[in-house]
Design brief:
The chain is of the alpha/beta class. The chain is built from 16 helices and eleven strands.
Length: 400
């Protein structure tokens, strides 16, 4: 056999091995719960095909699967009954989707930071490459029952991040999640929805249209196979994927007991940026965010500040300053002379010079300059502030 022929045979064998691995992992997504660390350890020890073979055998597994009780093994084997991974793979392919596993070119390597809690695989709908998108992504999460302020901030962050070339990742839930997705979509940007159910399931039902738009313009991903239904625990476990997939997590409105804070704390443990948007101190929906900000969280108010924190060197947010007043444009000597004039009444040149700490000649020169600029006016032998100068002085004190 020629070397080229041998390489082709080896390539075909390698491809068949990869597809067996993919099929076994697809089957395991119906058997193991997302984020199950015992399952992840078994998967690491026996491989996908080996673990599947053990769980579908009738052999006694006591002492073989570390941490698995007899009752647990019975439950896993009950889930394996009637399992048809090829049917699931065909179902997602019929939707234009795919099932990606560790080792695939599209697999985001940052998910490996989850260790044994790493997803067995990810079911994906949408055309973009998940690995490339995840490299420049940020999570925006928060309360489902958010206030109009929370919805506005989430949408503004979503659109602002998308306009700056960042991928907005969230959970497609009501409230902050949906607003963040819509903001990114409205800006013509990229967004990823991480579901706690099958990628063919629109949950919540009220977001069926939104999830459809995300499939068309972005990506919808999940750990559960087609038809998989959400449960409270699966929502919580889904949050670890959002945290691991992104460069940082922004929380917009969250109570003390909020799933969004679970995402933020997962991000902290993984060494990702943890970010919060402040709200009214009197609002219970701000309480969880404020606790986060009192700890390791970083306060932001807009998309530019998020990008400054998680982006590349030089991606700085513009400095926030108050309005520039006409007196701000004066030179130091002119400002001293102007400030030496009384708020009411007039003053002679020598009095202005004394209070400004300058000579009479310099004070008079500056007073004539200020007269030409509309700051002062002559009153007999003295000088006084104009109404314009007084308003500017009041505005300056009010902003101090």
């Amino acid at each position: 056999m020629t070397p080229d022929g041998g390489g082709a045979v080896a390539g075909c064998a390698g491809e068949r091995e990869r597809e067996r691995e993919r099929s076994a992992r697809a089957a395991l997504t119906r058997i193991l719960e997302p984020g199950e660390e015992h399952g992840g350890r078994w998967l690491r020890e026996f491989g996908a095909e080996g673990l599947l073979a053990l769980l579908t055998s009738k052999d006694c597994l006591e002492g073989v699967l570390t941490g698995a009780t007899e009752r647990r093994v019975r439950g896993l084997r009950a889930r394996a009954v009637g399992m048809e991974p090829e049917r699931d793979l065909d179902a997602v392919q019929a939707l234009g989707g795919r099932f990606i596993v560790p080792g695939d070119p599209e697999w985001p390597s940052q998910l490996n930071d989850l260790g044994d809690a790493r997803p067995v695989g990810l079911w994906v709908r949408g055309l973009p490459d998940l690995r490339k998108w995840a490299l420049r992504s940020v999570a925006v999460v928060g309360a489902r029952a958010c206030t109009p302020y929370g919805a506005h901030m989430a949408a503004t962050l979503g659109s602002g991040l998308a306009e700056r070339g960042w991928v907005v990742v969230s959970g497609a839930a009501f409230g902050v999640d949906g607003s963040a997705h819509r903001g990114a979509l409205a800006a013509g940007g990229a967004t990823v929805a991480v579901l706690a159910c099958g990628v063919d399931v629109a949950y919540p039902r009220g977001h069926g249209t939104l999830i459809g738009r995300i499939v068309e313009q972005g990506l919808v991903i999940g750990e559960l196979p087609p038809g998989g239904h959400p449960t409270p625990s699966r929502f919580v476990l889904r949050n670890r994927v959002i945290a691991a997939l992104t460069r940082g997590t922004v929380v917009v409105e969250a109570e003390h007991r909020s799933g969004s804070l679970v995402t933020a704390r997962s991000a902290q443990r993984l060494g990702r940026y943890t970010i919060g948007v402040p709200g009214p101190a009197t609002s219970g929906l701000s309480a969880g965010v404020h606790d986060l900000l009192r700890g390791e969280g970083v306060l932001v108010t807009d998309a530019a500040e998020v990008v400054e924190l998680i982006g590349a060197m030089g991606e700085l947010a513009p400095a926030h300053t108050g309005p520039v007043l006409p007196r701000d444009l004066l030179d130091p000597a002119g400002r001293r002379v102007l400030e030496a004039l009384p708020a009411r009444g007039a003053a002679h040149g020598q009095d202005v010079a004394r209070d400004a700490g300058t000579t009479v000649d310099e004070a008079l020169g500056k007073l004539y300059e200020l007269h030409s600029l509309g700051f002062v006016e002559r009153v007999g032998e003295g000088w006084r502030l104009t109404l314009t100068a007084k308003r500017g002085s009041n505005a300056r004190r009010g902003g101090a």
